[in-house]
Structure formats: C-alpha cells, structure tokens
Amino acid sequence: MLEHTKKLPIEIKFIGPLANKAKAIDALKPLGFVDASDRVPWRDLFPEYKDEELPGVCLSGSRLKEGMTQKELSELTGIPQSHISEMENGRRQIGKKRAKILAKALNVGYKVFL
Hints:
It is a single chain. This protein is mainly alpha-helical. The protein has a domain at about 50-114: 434 Repressor (Amino-terminal Domain), CATH 1.10.260. The chain has helices at about 20-30, 40-45, 55-65, 70-75, 80-90, 95-105. The radius of gyration is 20 Å and the shape is elongated. The chain starts with 20 loop residues before the first helix and ends in an 8-residue tail after the last helix.
C-alpha cells in the first residue's frame, strides 16, 4: 500500500470586500493558514543567479550561516575541501548522497543542494 506523503502548501486566493479581509484571515488562522500577501518570491529578489548556480550558492550560504570554513565542513563531512570549493563554485555536481551528508552537517534540508 502506498504511504501518505507530505502535502505541499497550497495558495488560495479570494475575491471579496476589502473591509472583510482581516476577518477572513483571522478565521483561517486556526485552520493552519497564514497570510502570505506581503511575501515576495525569492527568485524575484535574486535574479542574478541562474538555476545551475543555485546549489553552490545554497551550500556556501548554509556553510556561512553556520559559521564554518570549507576546511571545517570538510573535516565534519569527510568530503575533501577542494571538492566543497568546486561544488560552491559550480564546477562539481553535489549529488543526492553528498547533499544528504552536507545537509545533516549544516542543519538544512538536503533538497536545497539539488
């Protein structure tokens, strides 16, 4: 039998009187909905990054967020420092196996590196 998978968030849009917007938002909060009307998609904020650059940028950013050097990450993961440098600069694919190792060390989800 198939297992249930995690459902992705959905976006719902409503049309109605502006005066009732706050009431509608408050009524949906107990059901787990959040008001995302003021959010901006991250791709709109960083148009200078191409899709193929994103895994390396995410790796570099995650490493810096944790306050680690490439050498420290290398020692923690067993991945050579030169490979980490190549991955951050887009010259080496990260791959699923390494993404999981890096994600565990950097406290993030592995899919950001794929």
